[in-house]
Amino acid sequence: MMIFALTAEDKVMVHISNASKGHRYVCALCQTPLSVVQGTQNRHHFRHVAGRRAQGGGGETNLHRQAIEHIVATRGIVLNNSSELVFDQVATNVSFHKKVRPDIVGIKDGKHYAIEIRVTHAVSQEKVAIFKELNVNAIEIDLSSWHRACPSFASPAGIAQLLNRYAPHQWLSRQRRFPRLYHTLQQLKHWLFGIAAITPTRPPAPYQFNLDLR
């Protein structure tokens, strides 16, 4: 159920609670008109105008692919605090120590950032644990709510605004300045409390990632 839309004139995001039937709204994904549904039986929401939704299908795969292509082309993302993270290099099909392969890897000032695009399923806890073990910056961009609202999205229109303004960004892992100290504390926690969660088998060395570009 879609609860956010863009104003047709200036493309400002509006929550359904602030929407008015006298204004025009469009879908942030397919850019087609939306109607405001504010009845008494169902939860208030926006709905695609019959016959105006973008055709062509693609669903999860298409939205996921276009998001990756946009980030690779622009070599950057905008974080939740509106700060822009521009990479020196961007690549796909890259694995860290042959253990984990994110959707995108960006490199900035020698630091590596793993970027995951969420459309239907969140990144698994096992994968997050590997990012933390390897001391890698990892970010998840959540497109799941937009995909559910407009699963027929098949156009690049609106993808930039979606990624840079509306989709939540979550840090899955932050690179630690003192990874060996973190490793020692994790081992101590395990010894004292029997907590084995995210316990690296060895202390990772920062900035020494073995990237397999294939």
Q: SSE string, helix = H, strand = E?
A: EEEEEHEEEEEEHEHHEHE
Number of strands: 14
Major sheet attributes: 5 strands, antiparallel
Proportion of residues in β-strands: 25-35%
Provide structural commentary.
The structure is a single chain. This protein has 214 residues and is an alpha+beta fold. The protein folds into two domains: 4-48, no CATH class; 59-173, 3-Layer(aba) Sandwich (Trna Endonuclease, Chain: A, domain 1). Helices cover 25% and strands 27% of the residues. It contains five helices and 14 strands. It has helices at residues 59-74, 125-133, 144-149, 159-166, 179-193, and strands at residues 4-7, 13-15, 25-26, 33-37, 45-48, 76-78, 84-86, 89-91, 94-96, 104-108, 111-118, 137-142, 169-173, 211-213. A five-stranded antiparallel sheet has the order 2-1-3-4-5, with no helix packed on it. A five-stranded mixed sheet has the order 8-10-11-12-13. The model is unreliable at 196-214 (pLDDT under 50).
Summarize the structure.
With 214 residues, the protein is α+β, with helices and mostly antiparallel strands. 25% of the residues lie in helices and 27% in strands. It comes from Pseudidiomarina sediminum.
Question: Secondary-structure map with pairings?
Answer:
Layout: E1 4-7, E2 13-15, E3 25-26, E4 33-37, E5 45-48, H1 59-74, E6 76-78, E7 84-86, E8 89-91, E9 94-96, E10 104-108, E11 111-118, H2 125-133, E12 137-142, H3 144-149, H4 159-166, E13 169-173, H5 179-193, E14 211-213
Parallel strand pairs: 11-12
Antiparallel strand pairs: 1-2, 1-3, 3-4, 4-5, 6-7, 8-10, 9-14, 10-11, 12-13
